[in-house]
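Q: Given only this backbone (216 positions), what sequence would you predict?
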């Protein structure tokens, strides 16, 4: 059965690959699993049918048979566990790869998202400039720690894994926010992820949605 994922009908990222369905698309492309996409308007995301799939009214969701999942990390983990290619066969390496998945979403992403949200939506607050400096420092500290850990390695722990996939999507957001400046190791790491054929196919599929909007 071909899984169905949900994505923005009109993505706020304007086709830059920042929407979280990108993670799921990329994972499916890496393992060679065909999939269908159901595009949703912002209004439809708050309707009962979608809230039954995602209680917080967001995207992406994943449906396959009688299984319905939400949260991009959980979906990528399910895909990685069900198909070969995104998690190592060795038990210890597999556990470490899953650990990096959690690190990407729970440690590296939050300060980046907080910085971006403050920059975009709190610029009218009197404390905006001061808070932005604090958040910039916090995000860059975390990125510096990641850069130090990566060093001269191509990937986080040996071969490319779902941990790298999620980490790269987090760094895409950091790059868009200008936070990767001064981190050449992370910029090169992200570029390796973007050069993967599966990433290119996923990006093209997401970009096609935005392009179709422009031409309609």
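A: Predicted residues:
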């Amino acid at each position: 059965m071909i899984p169905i994922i949900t994505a923005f009908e009109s993505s706020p990222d304007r086709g830059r690959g920042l929407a979280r369905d990108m993670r799921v698309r990329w994972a499916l492309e890496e393992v060679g699993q065909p999939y269908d996409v159901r595009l949703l308007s912002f209004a439809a995301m708050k309707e009962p049918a979608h809230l039954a799939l995602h209680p917080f009214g967001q995207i992406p969701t994943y449906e396959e048979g009688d299984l319905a999942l939400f949260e991009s990390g959980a979906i990528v983990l399910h895909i990685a566990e069900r198909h070969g290619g995104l998690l190592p066969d060795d038990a210890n390496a597999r556990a470490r790869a899953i650990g990096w998945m959690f690190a990407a979403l729970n440690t590296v992403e939050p300060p980046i998202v907080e910085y971006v949200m403050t920059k975009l939506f709190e610029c009218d607050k009197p404390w905006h400039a001061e808070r932005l400096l604090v958040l910039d420092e916090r995000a860059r500290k975390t990125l510096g720690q990641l850069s130090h850990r990566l060093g001269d390695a191509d990937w986080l722990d040996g071969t490319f894994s779902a941990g790298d996939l999620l980490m790269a999507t987090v760094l895409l957001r950091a790059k868009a926010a200008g936070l990767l400046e001064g981190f050449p190791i992370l910029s090169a790491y992200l570029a390796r992820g973007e050069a993967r054929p599966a990433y290119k196919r996923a990006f093209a599929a997401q970009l096609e949605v935005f392009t179709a909007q422009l031409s309609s």
